[in-house]
Specification:
The protein is of the alpha/beta class. The protein has a single domain, classed as HUPs (Rossmann fold). It contains 6 helices and 5 strands, in the order E-H-E-H-H-E-H-E-H-H-E. Helix 4 packs parallel to helix 6. The radius of gyration is 17 Å and the shape is globular.
């Protein structure tokens, strides 16, 4: 196994995605790796914003970049200076873009969080993380969302 030098941490800027970024930053600090925090604005979101936004496409991308910058500053200010962090924002289809970004940049590891949905909910909503795992050319570390234990449930 080769040394991990480049980590890709995709985010949709959600609370859940913070968990994946947290793991990516911690691993990068321990391994001396760099992290690219990557936000893909999917075509559906782009279309909705484009219909209501009279500004050009470039302004939308700049706005999304500023939003990512704020997201990282607000949530990871204590960790961001401990490792080399790059940011990237692109429009596209999240699964396709993540897989292509990892391949094109020679990423050694993708770190993503997941809801861990099962059954009908999983079939209806699908899973970006699951599709990335199936298609990525490098290993993918999946960080599951931990739900609080139900009242009265026994600890394992």
């Amino acid at each position: 196994m080769s040394r991990i030098k480049k980590i890709l941490a995709p985010t949709d800027l959600s609370e859940l995605s913070k968990l994946g970024i947290h793991y990516a930053l911690e691993l990068a600090r321990d391994w001396g790796a760099e992290v690219t925090v990557y936000h893909v604005v999917d075509f559906g979101d782009m279309w909705e914003k484009r219909r209501s936004d009279t500004g050009p496409y470039r302004n939308m991308l700049e706005h999304c970049s500023r939003t990512l910058d704020s997201f990282l500053a607000e949530n990871f200010a204590d960790r961001i200076d401990l490792v080399e962090v790059r940011q990237a924002v692109e429009f596209g289809m999240p699964v396709d873009n993540i897989v292509e970004k990892a391949a094109n940049e020679g990423v050694d590891l993708i770190v993503m969080s997941t809801h861990g949905r099962t059954g009908l909910e999983h079939m209806i909503l699908g899973s970006v993380t699951e599709k990335v795992v199936a298609r990525a050319s490098c290993p993918v570390l999946v960080v599951p969302h931990r739900r609080p234990a139900a009242a009265g449930a026994k600890a394992a």
